[in-house]
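Board notes (copied after class):
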Amino acid sequence: MPTLKHLLENNRAWSQKMTEQDPEFFTTLSQQQTPEYLWIGCSDSRVPANEIVGLLPGELFVHRNVANVVVHTDMNCMSVLQFAVEALKVKHIIVCGHYGCGGVRCAMEHNQLGLIDNWLRHIKDVYRKHEPKLSCVENPDERADRLCEFNVIEQVYNVCHTTIVQDAWARGQPLAVHGWIYGLQDGLLRQLEVNVSSPEEIGSIYRMRQEAFA
């Protein structure tokens, strides 16, 4: 059975390098976790969250899934979100998609893949909502990239619609939600035109009464 010895050797080399740069790095890291950012991104191995924003371990709290989807019934995602907001007191939540996303591409097609079809249904719903604009894009690659952008925007608002985020705003906790997208071909992040930091910036139907915090 393979032992993945090379990965363990890589780990030792990395640990030695970090210790040489800062002898107290791991001691300090083990005693605290105070990130200012929660990253909700895609599971794609080509999008390493910490690396592309130049942050060290301990500086970015991360949740990843196929196609960076935020579903209110996903207890994994909701648990991460609650811990990040209520325990870690993050100030920024970044929803980051990427161009060339395989999950988004699969959602545009009609192939039957198995269990994941149920997950991709959420992206199909995004496609259906924006179909008039997407149908105007003739090039399939460009259409897929446009859907990647729409998907990020939809997930930003899904984050904002949660009781977790709205309760934080009601408490006066500073918290902003941002939509970004990453280019695999150039390694650059791009801000989409969506940054939300108050309930007034979301649809009124999603705003919750907050008498308990008045």
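Comment from the instructor: The first helix runs from residue 5 to 21. Residues 93 and 177 are 5 Å apart (CA to CA).
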